[in-house]
Design a protein that fits this description.
The chain is mainly α. The chain has a single domain, classed as MFS general substrate transporter like domains (Growth Hormone, Chain: A, Up-down Bundle), CATH 1.20.1250. Helices cover 81% and strands 2% of the residues. Strands 1-2-3 form a three-stranded mixed sheet. The two termini are 30 Å apart.
Length: 456
């Protein structure tokens, strides 16, 4: 491997990168890729914590703040929406500035929402101000897209499920970690001291940026490939996978942001009681995400994704029953299962993406490194688009909750809506990626591509 530093690029750049070459991978590639993965996980982890700040800030907002449950749901929905939208430019930023350089910048940007929340988090602050600060936290959601695009380029196809699952899972854990930190603050200092939580994240953000600066690398081969984004946007599989990602990641982030507020609003839990429960689901969902990726590497991403959606539909049925009967223990079992299963689906869906694009390259007559390079190029570009649309699923979940609680004071109608959506996800996964052609063998390029795609 040849590494050169180009002053005009302003950082550490690797000029040659060929992870599909087993000799290259064994001698130098794996060590470099794992190092970059480690610091990518750290930065993304803190990004997720900042993005989900308002899922716990609302637990600190008692009657003195004068904000009803619908208003609180809209605060977290605002953070979700901005986090989804900024994922698209964050994906472009990796190719424009380099993965290492953008990791430093994106980490430092997390200071803006954290410091802003430190300044305004007190009774008497206007609702509009809270909305503006909640919107700022969306930059934390963008970290996921740039991190996944960057790490996707470092690893060979046979390792992508594990690597992307670990990268995303380590980032997703930022959600339960900030919720556990909130529990610690509420349990020790009380619900009147949200600034203690916010202040703790300032040095962590600076540390993540500093470590990325000195320990990560940029990959020159992925720089400035704007055409890849255009090609990925034109491919229907980008949007099919984005739809499926709404069901997996959209569920994870939407439920993660709303869980504590649902417990307070529907089951009358106090801030401390809610905080003591909210971290469990996101933690399990984060921990099993690498498992979903590893299972997808071994058994096929589409099979694991379909199994995850079927199980999510069953868990949602349990939640609906518990919601109707007002049974908190059964509700917790079903809701925590939803988190775990969404995490499993997160890992498997992201494994499917590079497999789909490499399979299409093979079906088009490309071979060897040429097919692998095309797969990396298009899958990396598509991940930002898929991640952005998927995160909008979290916005949808929070808005559906807001509507359900404003109309009936219960989330039952929202869960019925989610159940129907999971049924559609099952049908799409099976029809596009698992259903095998019936009858006589077909001919033509579409038929050639189909067997390849059934193996993703």
């Amino acid at each position: 491997m040849t590494r050169t530093t180009a002053p005009r690029k302003g950082g550490r750049w690797i000029e040659r990168w060929d992870p599909e070459d087993e000799v290259f991978w064994r001698e130098t590639g794996e060590r470099v890729a794992r190092r970059n993965l480690l610091y990518s996980v750290l930065s993304e982890h803190i990004g997720f914590s900042v993005w989900s700040l308002w899922s716990v800030m609302v637990l600190f907002m008692g009657p003195a703040y004068g904000i009803d449950p619908a208003g609180k749901f809209f605060l977290i929905a605002t953070a979700t929406a901005v986090g989804a939208l900024v994922r698209i430019p964050y994906t472009f930023a990796v190719a424009r500035f380099g993965g290492r350089n953008w990791t430093v910048v994106s980490a430092l940007l997390l200071l803006a929402p954290t410091v802003a929340a430190l300044m305004v988090m007190e009774p008497g602050t206007s609702y509009g101000t809270f909305l503006a600060v909640a919107a700022l936290t969306g930059v934390g959601g963008g970290n996921f897209a740039s991190s996944m695009t960057n790490i996707n380029a470092f690893f060979p196809l046979r390792k992508k499920g594990w690597a992307l699952g670990l990268n995303a899972g380590g980032g997703n854990i930022g959600v339960p970690v900030v919720q556990l930190a909130a529990l610690l603050v509420i349990g020790t200092a009380g619900a009147g001291h949200p600034r203690l939580l916010l202040a703790a994240y300032v040095p962590l953000i600076v540390t993540a940026a500093a470590l990325a600066l000195v320990r990560m690398d940029n990959l020159a081969p992925v720089r400035g490939d704007v055409g890849a984004v255009r090609d990925a946007a034109r491919d229907p599989h980008t949007w099919i996978m984005a739809f499926l990602y709404i069901g997996s990641f959209g569920s994870f982030i939407g439920y993660g942001f709303a869980f504590g507020l649902v417990l307070q609003t529907q089951f009358g839990r106090t801030p401390l009681q809610a905080a003591s429960l909210t971290f469990i689901g996101p933690l399990l969902g984060s921990l099993v995400r690498p498992v979903g990726g590893a299972l997808a590497d071994r058994l096929g991403g589409a099979r694991i994704t379909l199994a995850a959606f079927v199980a999510m539909a069953l868990a949602t049925s349990v939640v609906i029953l518990a919601s109707v009967r007002e049974s908190l223990p059964v509700f917790l079992v079903g809701f925590v299962a939803l988190f775990a299963l969404s995490g499993l689906g997160n890992g498997s869906t992201y494994k499917m993406i590079p497999g789909i694009f490499q399979a299409k390259a093979l079906a088009q007559g490309l071979g060897g490194e040429e097919a692998a390079a095309r797969g990396r190029r298009l899958s990396g570009a598509s991940m930002g688009l898929i991640g952005a649309v998927g995160a909008l699923g979290g916005l949808g979940i929070n808005l559906v909750f807001r509507e359900a609680f404003s109309r009936s004071g219960s989330g039952t109608a929202a869960f019925v809506t989610f159940l129907g959506f999971y049924a559609v996800c099952c049908a799409v996964t099976w029809a596009v990626y698992l259903r095998r052609p019936a009858g006589a063998p077909a001919t033509g390029p579409q038929a050639a591509a189909k067997p390849q795609l059934t193996s993703v």
